[in-house]
Amino acid sequence: MGNKRILIVGLACLAFVSIVKALSHEPELGSARVVFQTSYGDIEFGFYPTVAPKTVDHIFKLVRLGGYNTNHFFRVDKGFVAQVADVASGRSAPMNEEQRKEAEKKIVGEFSDVKHVRGILSMGRYDDPNSAQSSFSMLLGNAPHLDRQYAVFGKVTKGDETLSKLEEVPTRREGIFVMPTERITILSTYYYDTKMESCEEERSVLRRRLQASFVEVERQRMKCFP
């Protein structure tokens, strides 16, 4: 009887651990990476294409079009968010027609169970849940009150030290927003694919092996057929 109780308790514990793991499971990042370059340092982030596919497609297209170049962080609220301005109004450089067309699209609210914790990327929007366009926040702390209310679409993969630097800039309050007193410009952006980078490494290794093989074959040829 005692052994049965131990077994039941053990199974219950395993089930509980499995449930906790399932609830806390982080979605898989896609292979694309985007880098925002600022005077405070670089911030690299990746996307959650299985969580918010429409949002990811939209933001990544804007990046590829150069839409975020010369844009800025209009909001820096320490411990809460660093928010990128809407592309249509936040850039200092004029937009071309293709950039403007993409920037003005409204994206359906892709709300999920992914938690708003430090490093998460979350779309900005108005009261309408389907009003997100191109402004988004990088979380500087945990914000559970945003869960299932704002669309999470990715996370910061490198550059947390840059976020920490942003948290130290002088700010002023305007209504509900805490804003930096200086313009924090996104000087430039670029993107790359981690899978392609991995393949390039493999190709490099293969080239070295082939070169080494060629040298060995040539050495044997010279030895056997002088």
UniProtKB/TrEMBL annotation:
Endpoints of the signal sequence: 1-22
Database matches in InterPro entries: Cyclophilin-like_dom_sf (IPR029000), Cyclophilin-type_PPIase_dom (IPR002130), CYP23-like (IPR044233)
UniProt xrefs under Pfam families: Pro_isomerase
UniProt keyword list: Signal
Domain PPIase cyclophilin-type: 41-191
Coiled-coil portions: none
MF terms in GO: peptidyl-prolyl cis-trans isomerase activity
Protein name as catalogued: PPIase cyclophilin-type domain-containing protein
Species for this entry: Arabidopsis arenosa (Sand rock-cress)
